[in-house]
Write a structure and sequence with these properties.
1 helix; single chain; five-stranded mixed β-sheet; alpha/beta; Jelly Rolls; about 140 residues
């Protein structure tokens, strides 16, 4: 084991104030990131904006139809779509992206179900494991 010439007096331990300032700086960075997110809410059938970072859906009918156009050709995009409310028992949302790799639709039928989608320049991909049903 190598020995150093450092003494205990040479080792500087951050003060509580310095640690608190670093934590506050990280929270401010996170707050800036959250402020920059584009959150869109939908409660009727229609098209989801492709510039959304977070999409919140409220099902207002059985099979409420939502569409998602292709993203910009060269810009990678990622969005999270979540069902946040259901107006009546049995209401569902069916999302049909214009170009979806492997699947054709994503169905939301319970509050809290979500899917993360990634646009790679030519197709939307399901990112990770969705709790909504991709078929």
């Amino acid at each position: 084991m190598a020995r150093t010439n450092l003494s205990l007096a040479d080792v500087r331990v951050p003060t509580k104030r310095e640690r608190a300032e670093r934590i506050l700086e990280r929270f401010n960075d996170l707050d800036d990131l959250l402020d920059s997110l584009v959150v869109n809410a939908y409660s009727a059938a229609g098209a989801i904006a492709t510039d959304s970072d977070v999409v919140e859906l409220t099902a207002d009918s059985v099979g409420m139809a939502m569409t998602l156009a292709d993203g910009a050709a060269t810009v990678p995009l990622k969005m999270t779509i979540k069902l946040v409310a259901i107006d009546a028992t049995g209401d569902t949302v069916v999302l049909t992206p214009a170009t979806l790799d492997t699947y054709t639709t994503i169905t939301f039928d319970a509050v809290g179900e979500k899917v993360s989608l990634y646009w790679n320049g030519s197709s939307w991909f399901v990112n990770g494991t969705p709790t909504a049903t991709a078929a």
